[in-house]
Amino acid sequence: MITCPNCQSKEIGKIGTTQFYCWNCFIELSIDKNIISVHQVEEDGSLSSLNDLFEEEKRRMG
Ligand SMILES: [Zn+2]
């Protein structure tokens, strides 16, 4: 079970093998080696990383 590092919501939709989407705060999450990377989808469809906003401890799964 994934919890959104940003809003702690559990309403996470799966959009790819390792990619997820938070329906609550509309950010994209991807998982690599049990660390959740956080991305914001820009208006032009590109992704910008929000990892700097979250300590790695908070992005670790489990
Ligand atoms: Zn969220």
Name the descriptors.
62 residues, mainly beta, globular, binds zinc ion
How would you describe what is shown here?
This protein is mainly beta. It has one domain (12-59). The chain is built from one helix and five strands. A five-stranded antiparallel β-sheet has the order 1-2-3-4-5, with no helix packed on it. β1 (12-14) and β2 form a beta hairpin. The longest helix is centred in the last third of the chain and has 4 residues, at 56-59. It is globular. The mean pLDDT is 93. The structure holds zinc ion. The site of zinc ion has 8 residues, from loops.
| Tally of separate helices | 1
> Can you tell me the number of structural domains?
1
SSE sequence, one letter per element: EEEEEH
Profile the largest sheet.
5 strands, antiparallel
